Description:
2 copies of one chain form a homodimer.
Chain A (H helix, E strand, L loop, with lengths): L3 E6 L3 E7 L2 H6 L7 E3 L2 H10 L4 E4 L2 H11 L4 E4 L6 H12 L3 E2 L11 E7 L5 E6 L13 H6 E7 L6 H16 L3 E5 L3 H6 L1 H11 L2 E5 H8 L4 H8 L5 E5 L5 E5 L2 E5 L15 H14 L4 H15 L11 H7 L4
Parallel strand pairs in A: 1-5, 1-9, 2-7, 3-8, 5-6, 9-10, 10-11, 11-12
Antiparallel strand pairs in A: 2-4, 7-8, 12-13, 13-14
Helix pairs in contact in A: 3-11, 9-10, 11-12
Amino acid sequence: MTGVDVVAIGNALVDVLSNETDEFVTRHAMVKGSMDLIDTARAEALYAAMGPGVEISGGSAANTTAGIVSLGGSAAYIGRVRDDQLGVVYRHDLTAAGVHFDTVAATNGLATGRSLIIVTPDAERTMNTYLGASSELTVDDVDTDLIRRAAITYLEGYLWDSPAAQDAYRHAANVAHDAGRQVALTLSDGFVVDRHRDTFLDLIADSVDLLFANDVELQSLYEVDTFDAAIAKVRHHCTIAAITRGADGSVLLSGDDIIEVPVEPVPGGHVVDTTGAGDLYAAGVMHGLARGRDLRTCGRFGGLAASECISHLGARPQTSLADAAVAAGIG
Amino acid sequence: MTGVDVVAIGNALVDVLSNETDEFVTRHAMVKGSMDLIDTARAEALYAAMGPGVEISGGSAANTTAGIVSLGGSAAYIGRVRDDQLGVVYRHDLTAAGVHFDTVAATNGLATGRSLIIVTPDAERTMNTYLGASSELTVDDVDTDLIRRAAITYLEGYLWDSPAAQDAYRHAANVAHDAGRQVALTLSDGFVVDRHRDTFLDLIADSVDLLFANDVELQSLYEVDTFDAAIAKVRHHCTIAAITRGADGSVLLSGDDIIEVPVEPVPGGHVVDTTGAGDLYAAGVMHGLARGRDLRTCGRFGGLAASECISHLGARPQTSLADAAVAAGIG
């Protein structure tokens, strides 16, 4: 491959999705809508309590790369799996989606990571992630040649829990900037922001051109009580910020511009599973940016990709997003 | 557990489902709607060619047991997996569905089996099965105590390709009959019937009280050109025969009785994936029989369970079939 629109780095995880009641979420002490990191013992206990599952390859940043390819762009992925059955499934699914993925599978250490995802009747997802092999990503896994060839290097906030991954991110960001490329970051989750506020603030100031977050994560980052206060803070912290607000759509900021984009209609009219909505929104925005589209159109690409994602179980596109964009008049 | 409605023996397989075009089926030399046994090399080549997959535990007879539990009955399963990741997933899903499953996982030999299932736009499924560990089931895996406690021992025709499994089936049937229990068989697939016509005919005559088949399989079994001719043959070959005819519903035969049962409406009105339709039909019929219901009601249970199954991807119930039966007035 020569040039590529986006290379993403993140936790390579197989999603195990199960429909459960709100009572299940409460009983197992989960915070609905969040992502909790779990150890082997908790993973085994929780899995035993869950109903029959569906396995679909996931991982936040990997979902984003699948979205970019579905929109007609090009994408590559850096992430760590083991040489086990789930690792083979993971590589197959991402490659079959058209994403370039050649991070070598680990031959020892932890098993391929997985996220036990509880989908409640309101379609909200609550994630319990056993990072496994993905937590052992280091700077050695960063393909610097790939970073140099990508218009945008996209970093997943979830991976920031690992000190070795922080080093890998900083290295990737430096390589990208030295090559005249852009760096994007998603904050991923409110609890991740709580754990790493200071280093995230430094990373954004030093290395991030394009920031993705939802309203809750952004307010947590700046420790402010209102969305407007958060907007005022982020405006001069990075070049572009794209902030999602659930059913209220998204807001994109660039310099003094502020653009509000409403949500797109959900295909089929029914929200099934919100897993991956933010990942696919980021895919749409970066696809637009990589093509030099105006910021409003970038936001619409994001909304389109997110609405397709929440219309079905699983976090990767099941229909052509390029076709959806054409149908929506922005293809 | 004490008594159990049904114990099933079959190939323990994880389904890998992918939506593909009719052209894909043709290009890879598959016979649409059938099941083809594939070796490791073919499995790898086909998997590489398939798009992103969804993994859902399957296996024909195991799907049937999950259906019986969803209807409010009790069921147990005998099948062979390896002590690998897919084996763990398989055991979890079947157990979480409420099915008793304690066949010990193999610690050596082939990996847990899987079926690469191509779902075409017409919702038809075409299966390419790598049997793996499931092909190594022997008479030693048959829990005779379990067989004695089950009202019906249900045998999956797919497994008949293995000589060791044939021995296991004959042994299970003998144990069941010695305990005064009933034995059911499903023919599973037209090509399986072609490969094993004579031994199937003998097995049915010697050991089968209740036969499941679709119209094509039944005509193949008796090498006749019409459905009526097949019906005339099967009528005196076993005690009860339950024959599915796709969109034309099913026919149940007992002695001189012949009962035609129409299909039930598909929840949501849209057929998504026909994988498992026959398995769930068998679940409904056996659930009714185990409860002493009349044959027409047994057929309606079968139709209800099948219609729920084809309304979604994957071959096991995603909603309560007991509730569906109540709603249909036969609960």
